[in-house]
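<backbone_tokenisation>
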Amino acid sequence: MNPSATSSGGGAADNRRLSRRLFLIAGAAVGAGVLVGCGSSDQLMPFSSGVDQTKAWQLSTRNVSGASNAAKRHAANKRFVSAAAADAGRAHAGDNSRVVSVDISPATWMLWFGSGADATDLRQL
């Protein structure tokens, strides 16, 4: 009889457990490597320093009397990279909307402003 063909307590099962164990260890190592690689916030937008990548700005017509329909639609759909950009990006000269900040995720910030844009129109995404 071939000694390798006999099992001493389930040789095939031991091989499967070892493979499963190695798979889990390798998966944990890969997962840890990914988490460590994602930890740096400078990689989100390397060309811009000093910009808060968790805030966007928008115009708000809430509690603003006499806001035009154009200003309301504009305020509902436009997001800006800074308060100054929001102030400069009003719907028209008579738009008296307030400039307010909005908390967003860094991934959303990258989607909206990652290409270097000052503003994004949510109707165009």
Summary: The beta strands are 55-60, 78-80, 98-103, 119-121.
